[in-house]
Inverse folding.
């Protein structure tokens, strides 16, 4: 279904608000650069905070979006989502990689140090592997969309989508390697856990599908790209299944840690479930349960459920970091003194976090407008799935 190129897919107030929030984030970053990371609530023990949480979430969204888009061309049960693959890839992969990259940039302090990550690369480091995977997401995402559009214009056969779809699916599964940054740290018992790769994969799928539900609900409401409530509900149920996997991981770790009462991980679990971090844990638990109820509910609550599910994933990552970092095996001597208090980000961190996400939303809004209306890419969306049933067609 071709759209009128004069039609605005998104509301201008939303674009303006996100742009202003992005500017606020830029101001926060300038303040952090000029005054240092002392503007944050990070310290000798809590070295990773809100920025790394954002990085984990958006890396997961990129991986999960690759899995979603490629599945439409690999599995018959997902073929109905072919018309949405292009936008899902551009918004979910390319925009998310840009957002994740910004979170790493602000976390390292001085952005001029970024070149050292490549110049002094340690190829045996999981962090370097993660860096390569993010680059891979971006490259495969671009190739996937490019191939999709060439097929739509008749420049390639629709069968050519299989190879890049398979590559995209495998790349999406590599989000498990992101977990190695944590799971291979033997001095961090909560992280040094073989369940982490499974948890990271499940979280990536939940976050990506939640984002796609919100995106396609908005596009459906604006009339830019129709998607039936049945299709949205199906995505919600798939997200719910993987959110349930996360629930099993959370409950399993809590029971094992609390029941044994001994071992290196037990004090950390107690701190999280019944100690200083208990409020955060129970907020996470309630969010997971609420997300499951809403995603599996028969009434049209997919968008609300998606939002709650995204918040649940945020809390899972939040507690993954703070529970371990607030409970080190060894206490460093000297100042500052160790404190087991729960981590809460500073206003600068919150402002920068919201600003980066808002910048990502601005990129996504622009991308959706371009690909939906074909204003520059000369490609639009076809709900009738012509040209090899891939869901895009060339504009006349």
């Amino acid at each position: 279904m071709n759209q009128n190129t004069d039609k605005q897919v998104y509301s201008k107030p939303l674009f303006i608000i996100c742009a202003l929030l992005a500017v606020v984030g830029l101001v926060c970053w300038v303040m952090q650069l000029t005054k240092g990371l002392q503007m944050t609530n990070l310290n000798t023990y809590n070295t990773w905070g809100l920025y790394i949480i954002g990085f984990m979430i958006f890396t997961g969204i990129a991986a999960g979006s690759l899995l979603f888009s490629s599945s439409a061309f690999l599995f018959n049960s997902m073929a109905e989502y072919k018309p949405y693959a292009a936008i899902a890839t551009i918004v979910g992969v390319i925009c998310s990689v840009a957002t994740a990259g910004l979170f790493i940039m602000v976390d390292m302090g001085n952005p001029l140090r970024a070149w050292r990550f490549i110049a002094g690369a340690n190829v045996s480091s999981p962090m370097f592997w993660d860096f390569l995977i993010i680059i891979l997401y971006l490259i495969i995402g671009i190739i996937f969309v490019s191939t999709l559009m060439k097929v739509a214009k008749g420049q390639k056969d629709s069968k050519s989508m299989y190879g890049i779809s398979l590559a995209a699916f495998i790349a999406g599964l590599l989000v498990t390697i992101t977990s190695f940054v944590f799971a291979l740290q033997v001095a961090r018992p909560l992280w040094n856990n073989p369940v982490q790769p499974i948890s990271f994969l499940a979280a990536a799928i939940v976050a990506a599908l939640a984002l796609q539900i919100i995106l396609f609900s908005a596009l459906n409401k604006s009339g830019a790209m129709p998607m039936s409530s049945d299709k949205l509900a199906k995505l919600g149920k798939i997200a719910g299944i993987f959110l349930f996997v996360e629930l099993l991981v959370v409950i399993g770790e809590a029971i094992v840690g609390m029941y044994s009462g001994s071992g290196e991980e037990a004090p950390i679990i107690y701190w999280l479930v019944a100690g200083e971090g208990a409020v955060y844990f129970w907020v996470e638990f309630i969010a997971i349960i609420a997300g499951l109820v809403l995603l599996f509910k028969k009434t049209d609550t997919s968008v609300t459920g998606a939002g709650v599910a995204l918040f649940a994933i945020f809390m899972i990552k939040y507690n993954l970091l703070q529970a371990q970092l607030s409970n080190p095996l060894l206490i460093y001597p000297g100042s500052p003194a160790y404190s087991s208090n729960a981590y809460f980000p500073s206003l600068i961190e919150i402002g920068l976090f919201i600003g980066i996400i808002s910048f990502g939303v601005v990129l996504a809004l622009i991308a959706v407008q371009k690909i939906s209306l074909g204003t520059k890419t000369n490609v639009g969306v076809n709900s009738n799935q012509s040209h090899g049933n891939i869901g895009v067609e060339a504009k006349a």
Summary: Strands lie at 379-381, 392-394. The CA atoms of residues 32 and 39 lie 6 Å apart. The mean pLDDT is 85. The first helix runs from residue 12 to 35.
